[in-house]
């Protein structure tokens, strides 16, 4: 287990539902819960019947019938409020991972992205309140901080929706929180699989959008562990941000194929040179919790027990280019292989 792994899981006997449960995160989350806990029900909610069928077969091979007896597979879309309301019946914990995430696709198809990421978030909130779900954690992205693309803007709207939902729960008692982290190494749509495919095909060079570009990096396992540990940290209304390393895209290319040349192809529509997870304005309500930051809600319920931790400096911001934690080649390759914890170098090394 990684550095974000919770010391204990309070999921035994619980009913847990994951929207977008057949995606990269959802599958790893389901596998991790099956390995570490004994939930009463573990529900996959997604809209792709083929992925659900393939996932059932894979899990059956890996875990056997006894573990799989807790699994439930619900076909549905987060755009469908009525279907969500039915699926959420009896759920104790909801992890909201369903989203449209490809930046260029969102720029070209804005209404589709808005319907899934914004209106879908509202539907999840309403279904959670109607069914008295105890805990809801929504997955966000570094692109939601000071967004310049539609995907980031929709996720910012989603974040605001989940944070404000705590003010609606009243005697229902549902608690909503958000986790925000950077690029997942090796996930679909990230740069590492693209480079791997090109290298395997014998490419003579690798495409680089801009040699200055930097990104926050986290492994899929770390992302799952971060969400699981946030379930025990959450009070409701906070946005949790992990402390994770940065790396230049050009250095990722050099780490994966040191003998290949690179070719600058230009920044895609909606892309930033550098990503940010906490802005200077966010920092005023953010506290340091050790391995993570918590952006506290601006409008907190009077009954909420606040987190205890030192506040951040007035001019603090958490951006991928000014981060003080950077990956070297060995560290990146360790993350890519999901092997031993990545060896880091500090910014002043």
Textual characterization of the structure:
With 349 residues, this protein is of the alpha/beta class. The chain has one domain: NAD(P)-binding Rossmann-like Domain (Rossmann fold, 3-Layer(aba) Sandwich), CATH 3.40.50. Helices cover 36% and strands 20% of the residues. The chain contains eleven helices and 18 strands. It has a nine-stranded mixed beta sheet with strand order 3-2-1-4-5-6-10-15-14, sandwiched between helices. It is globular, with a radius of gyration of 20 Å. The chain starts with 14 loop residues before the first strand and ends with a strand. The C terminus is likely disordered.
What would you call the shape?
globular
Number of domains: 1
Strand order of the largest sheet: 3-2-1-4-5-6-10-15-14
Largest sheet: 9 strands, mixed
CATH superfamily: NAD(P)-binding Rossmann-like Domain
The share of residues in extended strands comes to 15-25%
- The Rg value, from CA coordinates, equals 20 Å
CATH architecture: 3-Layer(aba) Sandwich
Q: Average pLDDT, to the nearest integer?
A: 92
Number of helices: 11
| Approximate helicity band | 25-40%
Pick out the low-confidence regions.
339-349
CATH topology: Rossmann fold
Order of helices and strands: EHEHEHEHHEHEEHEEHEEHEEHEEEEHE
Main CATH class: Alpha Beta
